[in-house]
Amino acid sequence: MIETKKSKRSGDLREVRAIAKRVRMSPHKVRKVIDQIRGRSYEEALMLLEFMPYRACYPILQTVCSAAANANHNLGLSKANLIISKVLVDQGTVLKRFRPRAQGRGYPIRKPSCTITVFVKNQDSFDTGSRGGG
């Protein structure tokens, strides 16, 4: 499920977000991919996500495309001038299951989910000095 909303934090209405909720994937695995695209341009992020060999790339790609489409439709921003300003991955609910084992025992299985939030901004209003790498 992907939601798109305008960000109203700190009075900046030129920043747009898209949220993908209940993505059935570990937040730790998604963060490995997210760190690669933070601070990059929209087109560069699309190329990276398309050719990276991780399963987490597809839901992130969908969310980035949704944020760009929302910026284009709602604010009239050009997709060529968009920058991924901020990306967040939060832990969602955890499905708890049991796997039958020998001697009548059961081992717990955790099936985590996460929420992916992508913020995009126009390149003009983005501070190019801070490219969240670390």
Automatic annotation (TrEMBL):
Protein name in UniProt: Large ribosomal subunit protein uL22c
Subcellular location: Plastid, Chloroplast
Role description: The globular domain of the protein is located near the polypeptide exit tunnel on the outside of the subunit, while an extended beta-hairpin is found that lines the wall of the exit tunnel in the center of the 70S ribosome. This protein binds specifically to 23S rRNA.
Keyword set, alphabetical order: Chloroplast, Plastid, Ribonucleoprotein, Ribosomal protein, RNA-binding, rRNA-binding
Entry similarity comment: Belongs to the universal ribosomal protein uL22 family.
CDD domains for this protein: Ribosomal_L22
Example of a GO cellular component annotation carried by this entry: chloroplast
Record flagged with keyword RNA-binding: yes
Organism encoding this protein: Euastrum ansatum
Pfam families found in the cross-reference section: Ribosomal_L22 (PF00237)
Subunit details: Part of the 50S ribosomal subunit.
GO biological processes: translation
Any one Gene Ontology molecular-function term assigned to this protein's record: rRNA binding
Main location: plastid
